[in-house]
Design brief:
Strand content: under 5%
Structural class: mainly alpha
Shape: elongated
Number of strands: 0
CATH class: Mainly Alpha
Number of helices: 5
CATH topology: Four Helix Bundle (Hemerythrin (Met), subunit A)
Helix content: 55-70%
Radius of gyration: 19 Å
CATH architecture: Up-down Bundle
Length: 112
């Protein structure tokens, strides 16, 4: 299979930068909620804690996606990019276009 590895590397690096930028933008939402009795009512504190919980969950998802991107970049470096990690067959180029960090062909993904 002849893939444009340089283009996939660029796509992966660009997505990784987007994730890092999203992390920077959500730092305030992930900060501990200050429980000042005078300035914030009980419902406002609950809202702030919900925002914090959602921001932390999103940060974990971004961390997981960054790890998948890093693994895909290593596969490019090792000459293993584009092959299913389960069966070893080629991953369809259209599937890689959609998500270059994908690790399995469509058949193996259906089995999971």
């Amino acid at each position: 299979m002849a893939l444009d590895l340089a283009r996939f590397r660029e796509k992966l690096l660009a997505r990784r930068e987007e994730l890092v930028a999203e992390d920077r933008m959500s730092e305030a939402d992930r900060a501990p909620v200050v429980l000042e009795q005078d300035s914030v009512g009980r419902l406002s504190r609950i809202d702030a804690m919900q925002v914090q919980a959602m921001a932390l969950a999103q940060a974990r998802r971004r961390q997981t996606e960054r790890a998948a991107i890093d693994a895909a970049l290593r596969r490019i470096d090792d000459g293993e990019f584009g092959y299913c990690l389960k069966c070893g067959d080629d991953i369809a180029p259209a599937r890689l276009e959609h998500n270059p960090a994908v690790t399995s062909c469509i058949d193996c993904a259906k089995e999971s």
